[in-house]
Specification:
This protein is α/β, with parallel strands linked by helices. The protein contains 31 helices and 25 strands.
Length: 931
């Protein structure tokens, strides 16, 4: 029992264990903050009140909580809850003479609390703030590891905007993407009965009396509130379902029916985009947004280009993959892509009203899609956008009125008439004149812009032919039964031929543009794959972006400490925006925007909702989640005629992504090479230690044994025996000294710490100094020194070259038989047109086999290693370091060490050094002394 009580006493508190687990997961998990949303169906339900109560609760638990921004209320009980909480002062922003209070993002980032309260998530920030929308401020806080409590109403969700607008007849302009709501760590529904909310409104707890009466008569009707409450409850249930479908991975599995939406530059198209996004979510399929670039796309005015860009951004915000197609037949392009991509639903917007609703005019896009898209369901979303209906009619038919086309049609008719009069006077058949009108109209159509040319050219040809060539001539009367058929043939033939020529011209232009862009993309891939450094990758990417967009590009490299390097401006003459001052594009303000883009891994600058006042659009160059730099594209004249569209944007992103991948591969290759070098060094160190431990054992054992005999048996040894023992100790010690010198030299060369003291030296002095330190066995051999000139001089580090000569002579002593001759020669020579001194050491030994000659300068290699029947390494004592060291020293001096076999026997090692004229050296010395 005592033991059991002891166990109970020592048992850890389960709450403490749970806290430790939670703290460990927080420490080991990602640094991203958590988002909690207080969700309601209308203003006044108590979202801010509930958020402040929750803030006090977590503050009592020891969390660091601050109030970043709370919307000023007239509700005393709500504002009273802010007491006791640290508050960040709002930022004052002046706009159009009015001072506005905005959330101070930088102050919160500097304070770095654990939790910050930010009211009104869907709020639109005043111009001058970093982000256009407050939810983007919240996203930056989450990326910085700061958790956020916030509030939002159901009508502010992008996906429900159209549905709620249809019920309440109120369109809400401040919206947030559905992903913000769905990806929140926690959503708390704040709910009260609609009658209670109306009572609070009437009692003045939500709005002032005048505004309250207006709200009760419009948005806050009992019917609207009941509908909004039901939508909010359903949306909460949908969120739980979606989170369950995503599972632990956090990503929805796309295994259902894919949805494709056609994006147009019209305001009503947003309804189709939202409907398609909701369908893709419901069907668990992929969501694709298609933009069709026709021959008229470049002729869109600035307003429609901006609306198209906004619609594409909305589709991307809702999770769509944007694809750009090319062609004037929009229905055919969409149907073909849907069949190729396997899309089962095609969503298009269809305006109510107009000629097609009455059955007049050309066949509608919807009807053509239903005929062409056999394997997909065409879903039509009414947009109630009558002006867009006429715009689509003009765009689909290509009937764009231009003065140039009228002049081209007039010139075509005039030229054909003039030539026809000549032919008529020659007495040729009238059918030749008809063909002449057809041919001239066809030739001129290759320069026309729209189908108005075909219409005017065909009508003009009929009237001209009737006036000049039918009987009676020079009137609009035609006498003959065949003339109506001739006129009909001329009208239809000229119109059809001209229309086909114009269509072919447009298709050729579209194909040429697409081919050029794809060529840029392929060239980018080829260049980036061939880049050898990260700087080359960035330079190639900048060149290709300039080719694609014809705009200046500013590149920033990411440094190892996480900061950006100095900007590099890339430009060529004639680019759009090239007139912008270089100092502006590379200014500290622009660099700050690039730094934000790099640190947050998000695009920023011009045309975005973040730091939109910048001169450039900044895009991170990344691979997965690693940012290697930032590319800035000059966008000063974004409202001009040369704005790039969705296709160019996709190509731009593709080039930058490929640049990031290529940079990552290069950095990985560099890291792999560094690891291989480290492994080689570790292997070299292990081999060195293993060889040293083996080769040092023999001389040390010999020295120890000889010394022991001298110490203990001195009286029993003769003088000759003592002399032999002392000579052996001396030789072994000299060998160890040489070994240590070689090891130290190799270490200095390998670490790059060897400092050369190069100066002119007499070759004869160096050779004589080396011979005084060679192996004592030199006494049993003949040594011959042959110098071409006693004053022969060379540029060298004498200490190192002495070591080279010692190693070469010792190598010759080791392999040359006793009584043989070893020669050390020095001669002047010429290499690559430069004067050199050639120093050689030759012997009369057995020579070097061809197999050994390939590896003789390798470290740890000696000619006896591993040879069957050969003598062991202890016979010719050495570690295989001497010749390797000689080669390294000679190469440091800018020369090469070589070997060859002599005839009839022996071998020769030689190397070259820069030659110096002794007279010049003496003259310089004399001048130095006089100076």
């Amino acid at each position: 029992m005592a033991a059991s009580m002891g166990d109970l006493e020592t048992r850890r508190d389960p709450d403490a264990i749970l806290r430790q687990i939670v703290e460990g997961e927080a420490a080991e998990g990602d640094a991203r903050g958590k988002l909690k949303i207080f969700f309601g169906y209308a203003a006044g339900v108590g979202k801010t009140y509930a958020m402040l109560e929750e803030a006090h609760a977590v503050l009592d638990k020891g969390f660091d909580v601050v109030v970043g921004y709370v919307e000023p209320h007239t509700r005393v009980d709500t504002m009273a809850l802010t007491e006791g909480l640290e508050q960040i002062s709002p930022r004052a922003v002046t706009h159009r003479g009015i001072t506005l209070r905005e959330f101070d993002l930088d102050a919160v980032l500097s304070r770095r609390p654990q939790i910050v309260l930010v009211d009104e998530l869907a709020h639109t920030n005043a111009p001058g703030c970093r982000h256009r929308k407050r939810y983007q401020d919240v996203e930056e806080l989450l990326r910085a590891g700061i958790s956020v409590f916030t509030t939002v109403n159901v009508q502010h969700l992008e996906g429900l905007n159209d549905k709620i607008a249809a019920i309440t007849h109120v369109s809400v302009s401040e919206r947030i993407p559905d992903r913000i709501f769905d990806q929140a760590a926690s959503v708390e529904l704040v709910d009260i009965e609609p009658d209670d909310l109306i009572d609070r409104l009437e009692s003045g707890k939500i709005y002032l009396p005048d505004r309250a009466r207006t709200a009760l008569g419009n948005f806050f009707s009992r019917k609207n509130l009941a509908a909004l409450r039901e939508i909010a409850l359903r949306r909460m249930a949908d969120r739980l379902t979606r989170k369950a479908e995503c599972g632990e991975s956090g990503a929805r599995v796309e295994a259902g029916e894919d949805v494709l939406v056609y994006v147009t530059p019209y305001a009503g198209n947003v309804k189709a985009i939202r409907a398609a996004a909701n369908m893709a979510e419901s069907y668990h399929g992929a969501f694709t947004a298609v933009v069709v670039e026709s021959s008229q796309s470049k002729k869109l005015d600035a307003e429609r280009r901006g609306r198209l860009r906004a619609n594409v951004d909305l589709a991307e915000e809702l999770g769509a993959h944007v694809v750009t197609l090319f062609g004037d037949d929009i229905a055919q392009q969409i149907a073909q892509y849907a069949e190729t991509a396997g899309a089962t639903h095609i969503v298009v917007g269809n305006a109510i009203g107009g000629f097609r609703a009455l059955g007049w005019g050309p066949e509608s896009l919807v009807n053509r899609l239903m005929k062409l898209a056999h394997g997909a369901v065409v879903d039509v979303v009414p947009t109630k956008d009558l002006p867009a209906q006429y715009g689509r009619l003009r765009e689909a038919t290509g009937f764009h009125f231009t003065v140039a086309d009228i002049w081209r049609a007039f010139a075509s008719v005039a030229l054909a008439t003039a030539l026809g009069l000549v032919i008529y006077e020659l007495g040729l058949a009238g059918s030749v004149v008809l063909m002449l009108y057809l041919i001239v109209a066809l030739l001129m159509a290759t320069r026309a812009d729209g189908f108005f040319y075909a219409l005017f050219a065909s009508l003009g040809s009929v009237f001209a032919y009737n006036f000049f060539f039918t009987v009676p001539r020079f009137t609009l009367h035609a006498v003959g039964l065949n003339y109506p058929f001739i006129f009909a043939f001329l009208l239809v033939g000229t119109f059809a031929a001209s229309s086909l020529a114009i269509r072919m011209k447009r298709q050729a232009e579209s194909t040429a543009r697409r081919a050029y862009r794809m060529e840029v993309l392929l060239e980018s891939s080829r260049k980036l794959q061939g880049a050898s450094t990260a700087d080359e990758c960035f330079r190639f990417a900048a060149e290709q972006v300039i080719k694609l967009l014809n705009r200046p590009v500013v590149m920033y490299r990411m440094l190892g400490d996480g900061s950006l390097a100095n900007p590099e401006l890339h430009d060529v003459p004639g680019t759009i925006g090239g007139a912008t001052d270089t100092a502006v594009l590379a200014s500290p303000a622009e660099a700050a925007v690039a730094a934000w883009s790099a640190s947050n891994n998000e695009r920023a600058g011009a045309t975005t909702d973040t730091l939109a006042n910048a001169h450039c659009l900044y895009l991170p160059i990344r691979s997965k989640d690693v940012v290697f730099g930032v590319a800035g594209v000059a966008m000063d004249d974004i409202d001009g005629e040369e704005d790039f569209g969705a296709f160019e944007k996709n190509l731009l992103l593709a080039i930058l992504d490929e640049c990031g991948q290529a940079t990552e591969q290069i950095l990985f290759a560099d890291e792999r090479r560094r690891m291989e070098m480290r492994m080689e060094k570790e292997t070299l160190r292990a081999n060195l230690l293993r060889t040293i431990s083996h080769d040092l054992r023999t001389p040390l054992t010999s020295i120890s044994g000889d010394a022991d005999m001298l110490l203990h048996d001195e009286d029993a040894l003769t003088a000759q025996q003592k002399r032999r023992l002392l000579r052996d100790i001396h030789d072994d010690a000299r060998w160890l000294v040489t070994l240590v010198e070689n090891l130290l030299s190799i270490t200095r060369i390998d670490n790059g710490t060897m400092q050369l003291a190069v100066q002119p030296e007499l070759v004869g002095d160096v050779v004589q100094e080396a011979l005084r330190h060679v192996d004592r066995r030199i006494a049993d051999r003949c040594v011959r020194v042959d110098l071409e000139d006693e004053l022969l001089m060379a540029e060298m580090d004498a200490r190192l070259i002495v070591q080279v000569v010692i190693n070469l002579v010792n190598n010759a002593i080791a392999y040359a038989p006793e009584g043989s001759c070893i020669a050390v020669t020095a001669r002047r020579a010429v290499e690559d047109g430069l004067p050199r001194v050639r120093i050689a050491v030759s012997d009369e030994g057995p020579g070097i086999p061809d197999e050994d000659r390939k590896h003789i300068f390798d470290m740890f290699y000696n000619g006896s290693t591993g040879k069957p029947g050969g003598k062991s390494g202890d016979f010719k004592r050495g570690m295989g370091l001497g010749l390797s060291l000689c080669r390294s020293i000679v190469e440091v001096h800018g020369g090469t060490l070589q070997v060859r076999n002599r005839k009839p026997c022996g071998s020769e090692f030689w190397f070259t050094l820069p030659a110096v004229d002794a007279e010049d050296v003496v003259a310089r010395s004399v001048e130095a002394v006089r100076g």
